[in-house]
């Protein structure tokens, strides 16, 4: 039973294949019959000169070329904010006024500390001078005592070894020598400690003088203000009136939005088409229908790997400078870019699907002349996504067959699809 069913299925498949073959043959026969009478209908276009452009598309984000985060030069209280977010400012323009009293207070405190340190230094140097004579005499006396104790110790050691003195007498001489050494070292240490204190105070004075000079520079430079360092727009304000600013936290962010740039990633297979200086067309959904001009400014020297969905690809970062813009273009906008890699004007152009490639690599096109098909070999130039440049083989106004079918042959009679001509 199972074998019978299998044979039945095979018969059905064979019958189906035969039907398909018959249908194809019928279509071909119908084409031939029509060729003998009114001819097979084909879509054509009159070959005209036009332009063909090779582009490299990519998406990116508009960014500012220059952005500066502004910090206060010192810690101070904010008296007033002189700008609002979105304001245009010039380099050197005041952004906020600060209470300069804090700097003056710091200056007064530092100067008072400096005077006190100088008084302490003078006292230490005076004590050193007064005590120097006494200390020298004490050092000489202590040194002589240590030397005498050493002499007694050496002599008593020999006497003890010969049994001339007792062990207690020898230990007494050892103790006397140790005390003399300790006394001498204590005097030496006191002298070193005093000198260390003097050097330490001199260093403290030098540091305080530098701090005073730095505060003076801040007062002269800041003058109780926070100013912009560039021309641009205030994009962020991080301070409020009455708050305190410092040198660690940002106060303002200024961006030069007049000069915009776009960072895109170009696939490694397309990067050979990209060169610095090439023109770029820029579009954004925020401004539908408008096209802005740009230019390739920089091509990264190294590639990088990026994730695209579930796969990774190798890309090369390319920087585009916006050279024609609109005030409505804002940093942060998503944009679509088309790098104009190559563009030719006033050349013969045919749709990509009108080209047939033979087994030997020859490129052929069907042309209709007096309702008859002619198969012509052509030499092509550059190719875009949809069109191909014709360098040799065709002439202007030739009627080129679009998307030719497999049934078309040299010399076949055809009927031109007039509607297609009108659309073109």
UniProtKB/TrEMBL annotation:
The keyword Transmembrane helix applies. Its main location: other. Residues 74-254 form the Multidrug resistance protein MdtA-like barrel-sandwich hybrid domain. GO terms for cellular component: cell envelope; membrane. It is found in: Cell envelope. InterPro entries: Beta-barrel_YknX, MdtA-like_BSH, RND_pump_MFP, UPF0194_transport, YknX-like_C. Residues 170-225 form a coiled coil. Belongs to the membrane fusion protein (MFP) (TC 8.A.1) family. This is RND family efflux transporter, MFP subunit. It comes from Natronincola peptidivorans.
